[in-house]
Design a protein that fits this description.
heterodimer; A: 260 residues; alpha/beta; 6-stranded mixed beta sheet; 4-stranded antiparallel beta sheet; 33% helix; globular; B: 299 residues; mainly alpha; MetI-like fold; flat
């Protein structure tokens, strides 16, 4: 098999709070191929967000290595664009168009004129052409996330890193955004690494789902999904199987069937 | 209220509720107007500037009335006499020269204070020790009224503009440094990560992410700095202000008091108010509506 696009090998991540040293993940390995919709799924505390930040280059592993197209990741860079959950990831002092353009010019990806063209192209792709000259504070939450996705896609990065981008949205908007993300993926087949704690979201969006257990984060299983949540050979729905695998501990199960 | 009907309360209410006749729809002979324009008086009353002008006019009238009944121009001149002195001062050029003298010193001190504040916050965001330095210095000097340094300043720099500028720099530096630093520190982690994601670092990171993100705090620091500087300067000029035959607005007030030109004292005070208002409402308000308000970042 050819070299994977992203190779995470035996990665242990730790971070310090004011009181203790927390081991977020312990010897986690996985490989992402070009065009994958790879989902990191697990309960809170499984280190999935920390793992994403490490891929982003914001945290260095204490053990193991992360390679993008064979090159070790050392610092943040425009070849891996993050889309965050927080709405304030857009620069409030720039309009929608300027926000997308900013990413392209600040990273010296494109010159001013090409950046403008590409920005408008991707803004139209997420259906916000009419709002290109609006400031972010005049947009709804879903629209802000769309701008962030447009900004990420406009960079045409090797991999798009999404940290629960729809978690702060209402249920209806979240569903719309999931459908839209799939539509966009059908269009351009970008590679995406998506972090979520919602099983239905993982099943719907991912073609491969990595299950992580918590405290510290360890790999439980790697599951393939075709997005339809069908009954498999063992006679259970995919989401049920994932649920059972993640929460064989009954107290955890209680708090689990949550956000759909 | 008594329910002396022989029925238990519930039993009385129940049939009444179910037997309530449904109101006949569309039988209303006079349809209610969905909307109507407000009357002229109401429209005018809704304009804040107009309401405030009305208050000013009333105050001026009260002033005029009281002063003419008091009839003691040495203690309390009338509004008319004050206006007259103001126009005389403007016409003869005396008031304008004094005001421009004050403003020149003010701008020098304000500019100096801002430059120093920029340097200091630059050091503070650059290193942990610099951060501690700024925090210690602002904690020490911010509570100290700048005017309290005037005696020392006079000793060090003599009777001249140097002393005024020293005191002004002191009055601007600390509030501006304090709020700029607080603004930088409160820039969200997400925005910082976004900046680094697109490869920004060093000066580009500061100018493209930190400064605009902290701009609301920076602007309010500049506003505070201005207010402190303006008050400090007028006060300092009242203590002394003569240097080589010229002087500022504060000195104009002091001098006219000595010559018992009380209407001119009032005119001087009025000028201080007017300039303060103009800077706050024209300059800072304009910057605010063009930036912070447009970006939805005002607090």
């Amino acid at each position: 098999m050819s070299q994977p696009l992203l190779d995470v090998r035996d990665v242990t991540l730790q971070y310090k709070t004011s009181e203790r040293l927390v081991t977020a993940t312990n010897r986690v390995s996985f490989q992402i191929r070009t065009g994958d919709r790879f989902v990191l799924l697990g309960p809170s505390g499984c280190g999935k967000s920390t793992l994403l930040k490490a891929v982003g280059g914001y945290i260095a592993p204490v053990a193991g290595e992360i390679r993008l197209a064979g090159v070790p990741i050392r610092k943040p860079g425009p070849d891996r664009v993050m889309v965050f959950q927080e709405f304030d990831q857009l620069l409030p002092w720039k309009t929608v168009k300027e926000n997308v353009k900013f990413a392209l010019t600040a990273s010296r990806t494109l010159g001013d004129k090409e950046a403008e063209e590409r920005a408008l192209h991707y803004i139209a792709k997420v259906g916000l052409a009419k709002f290109a000259d609006s400031h972010p504070h005049t947009l709804s939450g879903g629209m802000k996330q769309r701008v962030a996705i447009a900004r990420g896609m406009a960079m045409e990065p090797q991999i798009l890193l999404m940290d629960e981008p729809f978690a702060a949205l209402d249920a209806l908007t979240r569903q719309q955004m999931q459908d839209e993300l799939l539509r966009l993926w059908d269009d351009t087949h970008f590679t995406v690494l998506f972090v979520t704690h919602s099983i239905p979201e993982a099943v719907k969006l991912g073609n491969r789902i990595l299950l992580l257990s918590a405290h510290p984060g360890r790999v439980r299983d790697l599951i393939e999904s075709d997005g339809s949540d069908r009954v498999d050979d063992s006679g259970q729905l995919l989401s049920e199987r994932i649920h059972r695998q993640l929460f064989d501990n009954p107290t955890e199960r209680e708090e689990a069937f949550h956000v759909a | 209220m008594s329910l002396d009907t022989g029925y238990p309360a519930g039993a009385l209410l129940q049939p009444k509720l179910s037997a309530a006749p449904t109101p006949a729809p569309a039988a209303d002979p006079a349809p209610v107007l969905a909307e109507r324009p407000l009357g002229l008086a109401e429209t005018l009353y809704n304009i804040p500037t107009l309401r405030k002008t009305l208050i000013l006019v009333l105050l001026a009238a009260a002033w005029q009335l009281y002063a003419s009944r008091l009839n003691n121009p040495l203690l309390f001149p009338t509004f008319g006499a004050t206006l007259e002195a103001l126009f005389d001062g403007i016409e003869s050029g005396a008031l304008l020269t004094r005001a421009s003298f004050t403003l020149k010193i003010l701008l020098t001190g304000y500019g100096g204070g801002i430059v120093l504040a920029t340097l200091l916050t630059g050091i503070a965001i650059g290193s942990r020790l610099g951060n501690d330095l700024l925090e210690t210095l602002t904690a020490m000097f911010n509570p100290l009224p700048a005017i309290a340094l005037l005696p020392l300043a006079l000793l060090w720099f003599g009777l001249g503009n140097g002393s005024l500028i020293f005191v002004l720099v002191h009055s601007v530096l600390w509030p501006v440094a304090l709020s700029t630093h607080a603004g930088f520190k409160s820039v969200s982690t997400t925005l910082r990560m976004v900046g680094r994601n697109y490869g920004l670092s060093g000066p580009r990171y500061v100018t493209q992410i930190l400064i605009p993100a902290a701009f609301p705090s920076i602007l309010s620091g500049l506003k505070n700095g201005w207010a402190f500087a303006w008050r400090t300067l007028i006060a300092a000029e009242l203590v002394f202000g003569v240097s080589s035959g010229s002087g500022g607005l504060g000195w104009f007030i002091y001098e006219n008091k000595n010559q018992l030109e009380i209407p001119s004292v009032f005119a001087g005070l009025l000028t201080v108010i007017l300039i303060g208002l103009a800077v706050e409402n024209l300059i800072f308000r304009t910057i605010e509506t063009r930036t912070v308000r447009r970006w939805g970042m005002h607090v």
